[in-house]
């Protein structure tokens, strides 16, 4: 049986990589998850209509012009990983997302 990676799994693994002060609240079916950290700004993981992994957040809460990790792109509602796929594996996806959060929050 194949293990399915949900956006909730990715958010939880990213929170673990971010360390103390970060926690997640997955939706009932794991199709979304909210990450809260020391900045008290929610980061919400979702899969968009094109199948992209998206991290939505209030972009006015942090400065613009952040240098994002390779494979992470900004859009009006947050950031997304246009080339990410479940076959990349949980560790890779969680690390990429954690790196994006660190870049956004400077934390």
Strand order, biggest sheet? 1-2-3-4-6-5
> What is the number of strand segments?
6
Number of continuous helical runs: 2
Work out the helicity level.
25-40%
Counting helices, strands and paired strands, the structural category is alpha+beta
Please summarize the sheet with the most strands: 6 strands, antiparallel
Query: What overall form do the CA principal axes indicate?
Result: globular
Q: Low-confidence spans: pLDDT under 50, at least 5 residues?
A: none
Order of helices and strands: HEEEEEEH
- Could you tell me how far the N terminus lies from the C terminus, measured between alpha carbons in angstroms? 38 Å
Approximately what portion of the residues adopt beta-strand conformation? 15-25%
Query: How many domain units?
Result: 1
Mean pLDDT: 92
* Radius of gyration over all CA atoms, rounded: 13 Å
Describe this structure in words.
With 107 residues, this protein is of the alpha+beta class. It has one domain. The chain has helices spanning 7-18, 90-105, and strands at residues 23-26, 33-36, 43-47, 53-56, 73-75, 78-81. A six-stranded antiparallel sheet has the order 1-2-3-4-6-5, with helices on one face. The protein is globular. The N and C termini lie far apart (38 Å).
